[in-house]
Specification:
The protein is an alpha/beta fold and 209 residues long. 41% of the residues lie in helices and 21% in strands. The chain is globular, with a radius of gyration of 16 Å. The structure holds S-adenosylmethionine (SAM). The site of S-adenosylmethionine has 18 residues, from helix 4 and strand 2.
Length: 209
């Protein structure tokens, strides 16, 4: 199903296609096509204009968001210097460069740098999977009531449906356990209405009450 949805996904401009190719060649994780299409759709319905992104990588999702949402602004943070510099280069080649501010830093430590661009209509969490709850708890206060928090990879390659004992790698088992705990915490969080959508690698969409 996913391959088919990727094939019929909305058209991307040559810069975005180049970034997709680069990410594939260098094994840099960027959001899956049908996952990002779903997220952009929710952002359009929610009339999202200001976004905070945790985990820029090379700037692909940031560029997809500003291209899809006219007049929007994004504050995005990345802790890997090489990826941060690549993101800056790619973003500078886009017509939407002025809409994006990239911060080089660790989202767990540099909250104050991100907070300068708050408040946000949406928060997009797409960084270290083992830290999702911490990212959520640090940045949720900067999201307006009625705003949306998106968390990617919450179904982690379908592994949440597997029996934990059959997963060979210890590290993967630990990650699956952490994501399962996060999903459970999120679904039960009474300050949000959350739905988990099996699109891309699994997308949690949480509306702030
Ligand atoms: C899945 S990639 C982001 C992909 C990007 N959102 C996209 O779809 O184009 C995750 C990125 O988060 C970064 N990251 C992980 N933990 C972080 C942290 N604590 N602070 C900032 N960036 C972090 C990683 O270096 C990595 O580049």
């Amino acid at each position: 199903m996913s391959n088919y949805l990727d094939d019929i996904s909305s058209e991307r401009n040559p810069l975005l296609q180049e970034m997709e190719q680069f990410a594939k060649e260098k094994n840099i994780p960027i959001m899956e096509l049908n996952g990002i299409d779903t997220m952009l759709h929710f952002m359009k319905i929610g009339n999202v204009k200001s976004i905070c992104e945790i985990g820029t990588a090379i700037g692909y999702s940031a560029l997809r968001m500003v291209s899809a949402l006219p007049g929007s602004t994004i504050c995005t943070i990345e802790r890997d210097l090489e990826r941060y510099e690549l993101a800056r280069k790619y973003i500078s080649r886009s017509n939407n460069a002025k809409q994006i501010s990239i911060i080089f830093g660790d989202a767990l430590e540099d909250e104050d740098k991100v907070a300068k661009s708050a408040p946000f209509d949406a928060l997009f969490i797409d960084a270290a999977k083992g830290q999702y709850q911490r990212f959520f708890e640090i940045y949720e206060k900067y999201v307006v009531p009625g705003g949306i928090i998106f968390t990617d990879n919450v179904l982690f390659k379908g592994l949440l449906e597997e029996k934990i004992e059959v997963i060979e790698s210890k590290r993967t088992r630990q990650l699956v356990t952490k994501i399962a705990r996060f999903n459970d915490w999120l679904i039960k969080n009474e300050n949000y209405e959350t739905v988990i959508i099996p699109t891309g690698d699994g997308l949690a969409v949480s509306i702030k009450k």
